[in-house]
Amino acid sequence: MSGISQDWEPVVIRKKAPTAAARKDEKAVNAARRAGAEIETVRKSNAGTNKAASSSSTLNTRKLDEETENLAHEKVPSELKKAIMQARLDKKLTQAQLAQVCFTRLVVQT
After folding, report:
1. Does the keyword Protein biosynthesis apply (predicted)?
2. DSSP-H helix ranges across 1-110
């Protein structure tokens, strides 16, 4: 029994050190202010957003504003729309069947 001994050294149990996210918490910042610590807070311009290309978008916006050319798609005349619809109805096809015959997907345009 001589191999058994007791350890009488004091053991100090502490909480984990705060993580970086916890140090940036508003409560932690306020506690540091009350303690008199120097604090520098900087907010990143696009932090927490999905605007990675926002700096280049301002350049593109300026270019688009300076553009004077009319870039509109040509519109399909309503006579063509009605002719396609009438031909489809004459053959007793649904829109889905017509799309399948034309080897395309059915896309409803409003």
Report:
1. no
2. 20-23, 26-35, 54-66, 78-90, 95-101
Question: What confidence tens digit (pLDDT) does each residue in 85-100 have?
Answer: 999 999 999 988 988 9
Cα 82 to Cα 84: distance, rounded to the nearest angstrom? 5
Q: Is 93 helix (H, G, I), strand (E, B) or coil?
A: coil
Q: Give the residue from 106, 73, 71, 61 showing the smallest Cα distance to 88.
A: 106
**What global pTM score does this model have?**
0.33
Query: For residue 1, what are its two tokens?
Result: 């029994």
Buried b (16+ CB within 10 A) or exposed e, 13-52: eeeeeeeeeeeeeeeeeeeeeeeeeeeeeeeeeeeeeeee
**Are the C-beta atoms of residues 72 and 79 closer than 8 Å to each other?**
no
